[in-house]
Amino acid sequence: MRAADTATKHFRLVEAVSLVKKQYMKIRTALTADAESLIEFNQAMALETEGKELESDVLRRGVEAVFDDDKKGFYVVAEDSHQIVGGLMVTYEWSDWRSSWFWWIQSVYIRPETRGRKVYSRLYDFVKAKASEAGNVCGIRLYVETDNVHAQKVYEKVGMSASHYLMYEEQL
User: Fold this and answer.
1) 95: which strand partners?
2) What CATH number is attached to the domain comprising 117?
3) HEC profile of 9-53
4) What is the pLDDT of residue 69?
5) How many domains does the chain have?
6) Each residue's pLDDT tens digit, 3-31
7) Which structural domain range is residue 63 located in?
8) Which residues 6+ apart lie within 8 Å of 93 measured at CB?
9) pTM
10) Has residue 162 been placed in a domain?
């Protein structure tokens, strides 16, 4: 066999493996078995974005409550090579003005080693498709820290835009 033939076969094999790897990432609604990853993600996100350490027991009860009561929302995860690499939660807000639902994306976290691979874009596309299937969703919203410019750019790339609303809160 000539060297050129070997190089061509090697190139095709490498290209085929690369395509399989890219297509392997699976986006799906989270299962109760994914709770540990979601708890880990929430801990990491709170520390990374706000410098907060969350109480493990409270966080665990909070995550498990979503699985126990679908009125609270649902989680979506990205799975690559049988490992959860990202996730988010969707909660609901009724709009009496529109007589339909806004879905709120919360608790977004992507493992640092998989950032830049469009994991969030895939999660967002999945959420948009589910919202479209539901038929009674008028929009998707999220909030982001004002100084988290990187996340803002990611959200803009998927088609979201800054709202004219400011968020106020009082913690009780």
Assistant:
1) 100
2) 3.40.630.30
3) HHHHHHHHHHHHHHHHCEEEECCHHHHHHHHHHHHHHHHHHHCCC
4) 98
5) 1
6) 544 444 444 444 444 444 455 899 999 99
7) 25-157
8) 101, 102, 103, 104, 141
9) 0.83
10) no
